[in-house]
Specification:
Blueprint: E1 4-8, H1 12-23, E2 28-32, H2 38-48, H3 50-53, E3 59-62, E4 73-76, H4 92-109, E5 114-117, H5 122-133, E6 140-142, H6 145-160, E7 167-168, E8 171-172, E9 180-181, E10 187-188, E11 191-192, H7 199-210, H8 212-220, H9 227-241, E12 246-255, E13 261-272, E14 275-279, H10 286-306
Helix pairs in contact: 1-9, 4-5, 6-7, 6-9
This protein binds nicotinamide-adenine-dinucleotide.
Amino acid sequence: MRNKVTVVGAGNVGASAAQRIVEKHLADVVLIDVVEGIPEGKALDLWESAPVEGYDCRLKGTRDYADTAGSEVVVITAGLARKPGMSRDDLLAKNYDIVKGVTEQVVRHSPDAILVVVTNPLDAMAQTALRVSRFPKQRVVGMAGVLDSARFRSFIAEEMDVSVDNVHAMVLGGHGDTMVPLPRFSTVAGIPITELLPAAVIERLVERTRTGGAEIVALLKTGSAYYAPSAAIVEMVDSILRDRKKILPCAAYLEGEYGIRGLFVGVPVKLGRKGVEQILEIQLSEGENRALQQSARAVQELVDKLKI
Ligand SMILES: NC(=O)c1ccc[n+]([C@@H]2O[C@H](COP(=O)([O-])OP(=O)(O)OC[C@H]3O[C@@H](n4cnc5c(N)ncnc54)[C@H](O)[C@@H]3O)[C@@H](O)[C@H]2O)c1
C-alpha cells in the first residue's frame, strides 16, 4: 500500500511539492485547489510524466475534499503569496480565512493526518491550523526553518566553494525578518563556520538568509519562491512518512521550551511517523536567546491580531 499525501493549493509551491513527492516515490498525491481545472490539469500533466520519470505513485487533481480522505500527511499551501513590497505579515487576514476553511475540511476527511503548514505568515498559520483542527500539537508542524537553513547552507557552500553535502545550518525563530540564523550551530564538515569564516562574511551571509525570500520576490516580480520551498516541504514529508526521525528546524508548538509558551516558533525537532516526536532544547548564548525571544514576540503580535 502506498502512502497518501494531500497537497492543498495547486499553485507554484503546491504543484512543485506534488512533483517532488511522486518523483521520490514517496506517496500517491491528491492535489486540491479552489480554481476549476488547475488541480485537475496539473495532476494530469504530472501523471503523464510518470512513464518517462518512472514513478508509479498516482496523482489526483480535485476540488472535492472527499478525494483527500485518509491522507497520512496534508500539506497546506493554499493562500496568497507575496508580491513585491509586501511583507509576509500583510498576508495575515486573507490567509487566515483560507487556512481556517481548509483545515476544517481536511480534518473532517483525514482525522489522523499530520498537517504540514506552509502558507504565510507561517507561524500564525500553523497556530490557526492547530486551533481549528484540535489535533494534538505533535501532528501540526510548520515549514520554514528547513527552507531558511537551506538558503543559509547554499550561501555558505558558495562562499567556501565546498560541497553542499558538507554544510549544515540552523535557523530558528519565526519565519520573518526576525528569524535567527545560528552561526555557532552551522557547520562545514562538522566545523562551526565561526572557526572558518571572518565575522563580517558570516554577517553578510546571515543577512542574505534573512532577506532570502524577498530577494527572490524582487527578482520574480510576479510571485515568490517555490523550488527551494517545495524541496524543504518534501524533506519534512519524507522524514515523516519513512519515519526517518531527522532533526530539522521546524515551527513547533512550544509549551515552555526555550521559555516560550503557547506559540509556534522555529526550533530543532525530531520529525517521524508520529510528527513532532521531540523538541530539542539547545543551550543558547545570551545574544542568541535574546534574538529568539524577540522573534517569538513578533509571532505573538501576529497571533494576537488573529485572536485565535
Ligand atoms: N513557509 C514558507 O517557507 C513558504 C515558502 C514559500 C511560500 N510560502 C507561502 O505558501 C503559499 C503559497 O505560495 P505559492 O507561491 O504556491 O502561491 P500561488 O499563488 O502560486 O498558489 C496558491 C494557490 O492556493 C490556491 N488557493 C487559494 N485559496 C484556496 C482555498 N481556500 N483552498 C484551496 N486552494 C486555495 C490558489 O488558487 C492558488 O492556486 C503563500 O502563502 C506563500 O507565502 C511559504
